[in-house]
Structure formats: C-alpha cells, structure tokens
Design a protein that fits this description.
The protein is α+β, with helices and mostly antiparallel strands.
Length: 438
Amino acid sequence: MIGEPLVFVATSDLAGVVRGKAFAETEFDTRLHRGVGWVPTNALITCFDNLGDGPYGSLGDLLLIPDSETRVQVDFEDGSVAENFAIGNIVTLDGDPWECCTRGHLAAALERLNSVAGLQLYSAFEHEFQLEAPGRNDSNPAFSMEGHRWQAQFSGVLFAALRKAGIEPDSFINEYGTKQYELPIGASTGIRSADEAIIFRQIVQATAERCRQRASFSPIHNLDGVGNGVHVHISFKNSDGQPMMFDPEGTYKLSDVAGSFIAGVLKYLPEFLCLTAPTEISYQRLTPHRWSAAFNNLGEQDREAAVRICPVSSRSQEAIARQFNVEFRAADAAASPYLVLAALVHAGVQGIEEKLPVPGATTEDLSMLDPGQLQALGVERLPETLSDALARFEHSERIDEWFGATFKQVYIGLKNAELDFLEGLTIEEKCAAYGRVF
Ligand code: GLU
Ligand code: MG
C-alpha cells in the first residue's frame, strides 16, 4: 500500500490529554516556524470531550509550534507505523506564549526560579500504571518473578523503545497493586523533565498496543486497592551544574533554599492541589494508608508524606549531594506534567521569597490526630474532593499571580464540566470512565 510518514505535534492540555494535529514529515522544517493552527476553545474540552464554559467562543486563532528538541521517532520494527511526534508550544499569532499553554507556564515558572534564586530544576517523574491483556486474567504476587515474567516481553520492548526516544529507563517493577507496574526514569534539567513524562506515557501506550495490551495510568481503578501515583523527584543545580539541595549542616541535610522551597510547596499545596490531582477519583487515591499523600506534610523516608526526603546510598559527601532529592507524592498522571511542575516551582519560589523555614518532618500517623493536634504540627488534611480543591483554587490570590486570572477561569470551567459529566454515576462507574481515558 502507498503511504508517507506524518509527524504529530502534541500539546499536553489542561484536561491532562495529549492533543494535536499531524502534518507531512517533509514539511517538518517549515512547521518549526509556521506550526499548525489551534483554537482557544480547545482548552475547554474535558477529558470526556464535553465542553466547559469559558471566555472563548468561536472566535480566535493560535499556533501550535513543534519544538525540534522534543522530536521522537521510534520504529518498533514489527511492521507497524513508527511513532513520530514532537511536543509543541501554543502561541498567539504574534508569537507570544498563550495564557493556557501548559508548556509556556512551566517555562515561565522555571524562569522565575532562575531569576529569584539562580537555580535550575533537576527532576524526574516516576510513574505507576496497570497493564491489561485481553483474554488473560493472570494475577501474580506483588514484586514476584512470575509477575515480571508475565510482562517480560513488554518490559524488554519498552526499555528499547524508551532508549530510542531518548529516555533512560532505571528499572521495571512488578508493583504492589493488581497488575500494577512501575518504571522510574533518569532525571533531567528544566522543561525536559516534563517533556520526558509525556514521551514516557506515549511510549508506554505505544508499546502496550504493539504487545496487544492496554496500559492505564488512571489514578485509581479499584477502591479496595492502591492507586497509580506519579512521584516527582526534585532537586536543584546552580548555573555551573553544581547540586544545590544538600547541606550537611542543614535541618534534615537540606540547604536553606531547599527548605524554603519545600515549605512553600506545602503551604500552598491545598490551593494548587486540583492541578496535580485533577480528577474526581484522584481524591480516592489521596486517602490515608494508601502510601500516597493525605496531608501537606514533610516526611523523612515516609511514603505517606506529601513531600518525602529520599534516601541516599553513598558515603562520599559529593556523591550524596548529587543524589540528594525530595519526592512530591500528591500527583497523578491525569495531570499535565507541565502544570504539576509549574505549580511546584511557583509555590517553591514563593516559599523562597517569603524566606519560610523548613517545616518539621512528621513521624506520626496523621490520620489518628484531631484538627487541633494537626494544627499544632502545622499541617492540614488536604481537600478531600475535587470540588473542595477547586474552591481552594478559586479563592487563591496566588493562583492569579502565578497563572493569570483567565487561566484560572478556564480551568474551573473545564473541571466543572468534567464534574457535570460524572453526575449520577457510582464511584465504580467514575473509576471506569477515567480508566478508559487515562
Ligand atoms: N501506589 C502509591 C501511590 O499511589 C505509591 C506506592 C509507592 O510508594 O511506590 O502513590
Ligand atoms: Mg511505587
């Protein structure tokens, strides 16, 4: 059959969906300037494809312009069409960043981190997902060799495909949940980390399809089980590439700037949570005893903390400084990784500007404490529903400063339409609906 290669230019949108358009590969160089046409109202399409209310109507035009640095070409050499895409920025016809471009918001947040503190973000996304193989109902013990063998072909293909896509796989883990797997990847600087999260998710889906399976990153499938988390590992470098998070004399060995950054993240987490945990079922995952995060607390190696100080495995101070990082656990893969990092960076920089001291790490089971005891520890229960999280977001002045009032209005309109779509469904039906999308 005849055919020619097409390149898909993608944006990770406010709904957490990767959307875009394709053009002939022969036009790639011209499209780096011209892009493809994009429509403002697209920002109001929910993950279920119904439309939210917002400021955009039938008017207006934008451009979605591919960034050549993000180009991915992976030929699985199985006779299928190669994966061929690039991630883009949405700009106005004058070339300015558009108010609802998630990648543009991250670029602005990273610029703020650099201008306020002279720091570069060095981060990595760690994803959990579940694999479904139609016609096979295998259920294997967690972390078992049987569980690994069940997906041995998939994991081998996936490692090869990730490397071809420029991503460094770390390990493949048969996680605790039913048919749940995890694959941490290497860290990268600045915006590249969020690009890699998008590339990673696409390559996992692409690999699953070629292995006649389906991968789902949905926050939770079964309320009796654990959720699928996205853990974001964070550290900093200065302009010389030196690690800036570690201080052997600092509280919990955190540098002052890292302590203030974490304090800002935890202080503002209830206000930006609906960006990192963006679905109604995300709040079923963020409940105590699921090893996710239910409070805005710091923990040392505690897997129920919103921010966890991760362990290091070295005796040399230099190597420790390079490894030292903290992990943000209140995110899932229904969120655009650009918005997750943008919110974390803005909140962290706010903490640096406010010179906040590092919060005390909690050691107790916070779910056993009453509100007075929580207050004494300086922590609060995170919003328990998407509606509650949206109310905190709506009343936050910081969100207007960081993202702009129009972005806030569009996001709320979008999420309200998502909640309308779910109206009347049981929680199991809601999990199934999100499971079909993410
Ligand atoms: N599945 C847990 C979550 O939803 C994380 C388990 C772990 O610590 O790896 O975040
Ligand atoms: Mg895990």
